[in-house]
Prior knowledge:
Elements: H1 3-8, H2 18-33, H3 35-68, H4 77-112, H5 115-135
Amino acid sequence: YTPEIATKTTIVNFAVKEVGLEAQLLAIVVRKERPDLEEQKDNLVLNIAAGKRKLVELEDEILRLLNAAEGSLLDDEVLVETLQTSKHTSLEISEKLEVAEVTEQQIDTAREGYRPCAQRASILFFVLNTSSMGRSS
Length: 137
């Protein structure tokens, strides 16, 4: 495409890659064979994201209170109380995140048992797709 067209448009490649299709098929196979694993993985991903978001919110609140503090920081009871609460909450969230990440690794290991099925299905798709393109010529 000419530079004039390229700067005015967004070119989207809709071609399916073998690795991407394999990942999608792996999720489908696991969801069919072991729905408990896939549901647990989905929940873990959401929990990990929520925990990380909560940590960022705590940091932002502390920074806001520090910025708004006047005089001695130790005299600001709201700030001291918020720091103590944040420290406690942060430790709890960090522990939960560590457990969640270990659990996620265990789930991923269990999911790997289904990878050969996903690989074969992906290869089969591309073989059939290539053979159908050869016939249409």
